[in-house]
Amino acid sequence: MSEWAIAIESVSFSWSAQSPVLQNCSLHVPKGQFWMLLGTNGSGKSTLLKLMTGLLAPQSGQVNLVQPVGFVFQNPDHQLVMPTVGADVAFGLVAENLSTAETRQRVQEALAAVNLLHLQRRPIYALSGGQKQRVAIAGAIARHCEVLLLDEPTALLDPDSQLDLVDQVRQLVKTRGMTALWVTHRLDELNYADGAFFMEAGRIVESGDPQRLKQRMMAGAVRG
Ligand SMILES: Nc1ncnc2c1ncn2[C@@H]1O[C@H](COP(=O)(O)OP(=O)(O)OP(=O)(O)O)[C@@H](O)[C@H]1O
């Protein structure tokens, strides 16, 4: 069995024939780790995540992820579809044909993992942005996702909720053995990562120690 939860090998993808977005892009995330993906605007980060979810297929190369995979969007209002917290987490389990008792148990366990069990009956509209992101993460936990992909999940959050969320995901990775890949532009989030990638023009140009990347970005050696 591979040591990687996410293995992207020489992937190329173009939205149109004139402009390749990903060019021989490779990236590997070890199992049970929390890695971040940074890069210049338009370098292809969101496109790469869409390939990982299977929403897009690469024109060449290989995309391999340990399944099941959960996805958290930048804007939770594009993701949460049911009226209440508990109903939304349960909705993600419909395809699994579980008994009512099993569904209830999975929902409660997932909400407890993100410290939201007390809000199970609350309407989604009455949640803060950070709470909504936790509901989206609970949906992935309820489905027993091994891999969590998060595309700028803190972009709409205030600084306190931002750091609460990144800390929560780090704890989930460390306590549950999940693997997470988190796209961000925010350098302070790198303090929570096990490793980081930097993307430029459709390729990973740096990878490894997040503190080293942070220092290089702060010094202007690479620009995000
Ligand atoms: N649906 C689409 N149709 C056509 N082109 C697209 C589409 N989505 C993205 N692109 C183009 O692909 C390139 C990479 O975009 P992508 O959103 O993957 O970059 P990104 O690194 O996530 O950017 P940002 O940091 O600004 O969010 C850009 O040139 C963008 O205009």
Give a short overview.
Helices cover 32% and strands 28% of the residues. It is of the alpha/beta class. The longest helix has 18 residues, at 159-176.
Describe the structure.
- Helices cover about 30% and strands about 30% of the residues.
- With about 220 residues, it is α/β, with parallel strands linked by helices.
- It has 2 domains: about 1-65 and about 145-224, P-loop containing nucleotide triphosphate hydrolases (Rossmann fold), CATH 3.40.50; about 75-145, no CATH class.
- It has a 6-stranded mixed beta sheet with strand order 5-6-7-3-8-9, sandwiched between helices. A 3-stranded antiparallel beta sheet has the order 2-1-4.
- Strand 8 and strand 9 form a beta hairpin.
- It binds adenosine-5'-triphosphate.
- Adenosine-5'-triphosphate binds near residues 21 and 42.
